[in-house]
């Protein structure tokens, strides 16, 4: 088997094409990421972290009851507590429980919009 020496620019161009192809495949075939939605705070219980949001965009989320979504707020350390009427940017997910589907919990991740 003989040695094959390619000029450096050709090797670099090939590497760039491979990286670009990998990125494009990842974007097209990769998992969908949740979109952040803005809703209006209907109520918040600071003892239990139970947060209820309303709005047209809220209705599209899994676990929503009409245009209202209630769930447990998973917050970062120093984020401001929401008050009724605040605009709240969030993503939500359902945490499936082992016992029954009725025990599934809605988890809300987000913060008050400034």
UniProtKB/TrEMBL annotation:
<protein>
    <submittedName>
        <fullName>Uncharacterized protein</fullName>
    </submittedName>
</protein>
């Amino acid at each position: 088997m003989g040695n094959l020496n390619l000029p450096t620019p050709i090797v670099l161009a090939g590497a760039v094409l491979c990286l670009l192809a990998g990125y494009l495949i990842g974007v097209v075939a990769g998992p969908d990421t949740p979109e952040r939605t803005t809703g209006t705070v209907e109520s918040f219980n600071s003892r239990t972290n139970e947060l209820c949001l309303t709005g047209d965009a809220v209705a599209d989320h899994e676990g929503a009851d009409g245009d209202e979504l209630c769930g447990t707020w998973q917050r970062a350390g120093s984020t401001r507590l929401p008050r009724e009427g605040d605009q709240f940017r969030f993503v939500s997910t359902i945490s499936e429980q082992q016992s029954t589907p009725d025990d599934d919990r809605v988890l809300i991740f987000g913060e008050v919009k400034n």
